[in-house]
Design brief:
The chain has about 325 residues and is of the alpha/beta class. It folds into 2 domains: about 150 residues, D-Maltodextrin-Binding Protein, domain 2 (3-Layer(aba) Sandwich); about 140 residues, 3-Layer(aba) Sandwich (D-Maltodextrin-Binding Protein, domain 2). About 40% of the residues lie in helices and about 20% in strands. It has 12 helices and 10 strands. Strands 1, 2, 3, 4, 5, 6, 7, 8, 9 and 10 form a 10-stranded mixed sheet that branches. Helix 2 packs antiparallel against helix 10 and helix 9 packs across helix 12. It starts with a helix and ends in a 5-residue tail after the last helix.
Length: about 325
């Protein structure tokens, strides 16, 4: 009897182990994005859906305060990966820029460069803001603390000899800033994101009376000499309803992770993103999805690639 009972117990244990094994093997892979009104969040959602493999990998897009917050989340272990501006990722890895004086994020690794992010300066018509220099004394939202946008805005304003104290600075998400500008409580706000940005498109099409201000001129040329991650950019005419071509600058949107993430997991994720089916879905799903291509994936890498990503790109002949 004892042996029969023991056999039943062992059989039950084996059955539980068999059922539990797939659940234990399943990986969860969070992607820190940005505010829901920006470009990171919808693009992150598309990518998460494309790489998810039920029973093996569950990816999810998580709204956040943006680049700096995502870097901190990855390094702190609350995120498996996240989107970041290329400048912020480099500063974190090298312990420079906004991360000066902080421990270097030496475990930060690149999964892929995704697309260029245009720096938008949105102003209320009639505010007299025709260039960055005109922001002095105006009510300006510079985005939230922890965002890459705030870092870049301070650099841009610095090129014109200004700091936060030279404007009536506010720090809020772009959709909140857009509502406040619409109600007359703000003169301008910045957002760094792939155009078209939902928050800007909705504001323009609502007839709120706004315009995009160029970020150009000798001051910006000089800034680019010292901060080479800024690249010349143009928001084409018609990107936003009734808005002509606007000259600006851009940084790259990158997908980053930690060196601690398993090589096999990252390899399979990258392989899934650049499959033919995923590429078609990305191109159809968002205007910036058309730029998430294999050739762009290895462009402008300021930090080391994750071994899993590096293996895939070497197989494709993109890296030596």
């Amino acid at each position: 009897m004892f042996l029969k009972s023991l056999a039943k117990v062992l059989g039950a244990v084996a059955l539980v182990a068999t059922v539990a094994a797939p659940a234990q093997a399943q990986q969860f892979f969070r992607i820190g994005t940005g505010g829901t009104a920006g470009t990171y969040y919808p693009v992150g959602g598309m990518i998460a859906n494309l790489v998810t493999q039920p029973g093996k990998l569950i990816a999810s897009a998580v709204a956040s305060n943006g680049s700096v917050a995502n870097v901190n989340g990855i390094m702190g272990g609350s995120l498996e990966s996240g989107f970041s501006q290329s400048d912020v990722a480099y500063w974190a890895y090298s312990g420079t820029g906004t991360f000066a004086g902080k421990p270097k994020a030496t475990d930060l690794r690149l999964i892929a460069t995704l697309y260029p992010e245009s720096i938008h300066l949105v102003a209320r018509k009639g505010s007299g803001i025709k260039s960055v220099a005109d922001l002095r004394g105006k009510r300006v939202s510079m985005d939230e603390p922890g965002s890459g946008t705030l870092v870049d805005v301070r650099l841009i304003m610095g090129a014109f000899g200004m700091t936060d104290k030279d404007v009536k600075a506010e720090y809020m998400k772009p959709n909140q800033a857009g509502e406040k500008l619409k109600d007359g409580g703000l003169d301008a706000f910045f957002i760094v994101a792939g155009a078209p940005v939902a928050a800007v498109a909705e504001l323009v099409s609502s007839g709120a009376g706004v315009e995009l201000v160029p970020i150009a001129g000798p001051e910006i040329d000089k800034l680019r000499e010292s901060q080479r991650f800024f690249t010349p950019d143009v928001i084409p005419a018609g990107t936003y309803q009734g808005v002509g071509e606007v000259k600006t600058i851009a940084v790259n949107a990158q997908w980053i992770t930690s060196a601690k993430q398993p090589e096999a997991v990252v390899y399979e994720i990258v392989k899934a993103v650049y499959s033919d089916a995923a590429q078609k879905a990305l191109a159809a799903g968002h205007s910036k999805g058309k730029l998430i291509t294999l050739s762009n994936a290895v462009m402008g890498a300021g930090i080391p690639f994750h071994p899993g990503a590096e293996k895939f790109y070497k197989e494709k002949g993109l890296l030596k």
